[in-house]
Amino acid sequence: MEDATPARRNGQVRRLSLTLVDRTRPTPANGEFLGAPERTLHTAVSFVVDADGRPDQGPRPLVVFATGYGGTTTNWSGLYDHWVRAGYVVAAPSFPLSQRDAPGGTTGADYASQPGDVRFVTEEVLRLARTRGSALDGVVEIDEERVALAGKSFGAITVLDAGYNPDEQVAGIAAVIALTGVASAGARFEASTPLFLGHGDADTMVAIAGSEDAYRRARRPKFFVTLHGADHLDAFGGGTTPAEIVVARSTTAFLDYYLTGDPSGLDRIRRATDVRGVASLQAES
């Protein structure tokens, strides 16, 4: 398979762990956990550095990545590190009660709070990046005008609300990537924020009908990649299987087109997904 991604940046991925605390919203009780008056979001901020440990010069676009049910800040880093190596900063929180090590046990009952968590993390990372003396000051520069949301599974459901639910929207985002998700009734798709959907047609955990419905409801520009024969997990790990390569290359091209204005992005999405027996693309750009 021809590599459709320009080799324009090289370096190593560095991760910085942040503990972000939203003191304006509570965490509800969960099992033996009595709840808390705040929401604590452990967040991994990933960016590329050169051989001397220095980050890219100049402000970089930001992608806020929402993990799935039972996830961690890095369980999908195999995929999102492709974006990091392409020059993006990725901030990936784990959610208070749907994370792997949630107090009282992992639960999806707190889902309604997660789009707000994405909004808080986005705003807080941007604030830290511009605040002298903060954990991000002098470490990495972020371009506040170029921000995208991305999510996998339960995280994809979350970012579809954070991107398209008028009551939950993150202000000023440039694009949304939702992998193996479902759009809630609250995601009204009134905004024309560019949307990338990816789903395996053999997914028995979250049926592909969820992404088909989101694609049908969304305004253009929108892209929907079907991974033929792929289940809920095996195309999204960022590895070297044909389906994983399709997802890594096409999502990177999507971000490049809508966040950096790379004119080759649309063609690269089409080329990356034109793999017989592996993937197919629907698009209205």
Q: How does this structure look, described?
A:
Helix 2 crosses helix 3 and helix 5 runs antiparallel to helix 6. Strand 5, helix 3 and strand 6 form a beta-alpha-beta unit. The protein is 26% helix and 24% strand. The protein has one domain: Rossmann fold (3-Layer(aba) Sandwich), CATH 3.40.50. With 285 residues, the protein is α/β, with parallel strands linked by helices. The protein has 6 helices and 9 strands; from the N terminus they run βββαβαβαββαβααβ.
Any descriptors?
about 280 residues, alpha/beta, Rossmann fold, nine-stranded mixed sheet, 6 helices, disordered N terminus
Structural class: alpha/beta
Q: Percent helix among the residues? A: 25-40%
Flag low-confidence runs. 1-8
For the secondary structure, the number of strands is 9
Number of helices: 6
Task: Tell me about the largest β-sheet.
Answer: 9 strands, mixed
Radius of gyration based on Cα positions: 18 Å
Brief characterization of the structure:
The protein has 285 residues and is an alpha/beta fold. Helix content is 26%, strand content 24%. It has a single domain (12-284), classed as Rossmann fold (3-Layer(aba) Sandwich), CATH 3.40.50.
Secondary structure layout:
Blueprint: E1 12-22, E2 39-49, E3 60-66, H1 77-85, E4 89-93, H2 114-129, E5 142-152, H3 154-164, E6 175-179, E7 195-200, H4 209-217, E8 222-227, H5 242-260, H6 265-273, E9 279-284
Parallel strand pairs: 3-4, 3-5, 5-6, 6-7, 7-8
Antiparallel strand pairs: 1-2, 2-4, 8-9
Helix pairs in contact: 1-5, 2-3, 5-6
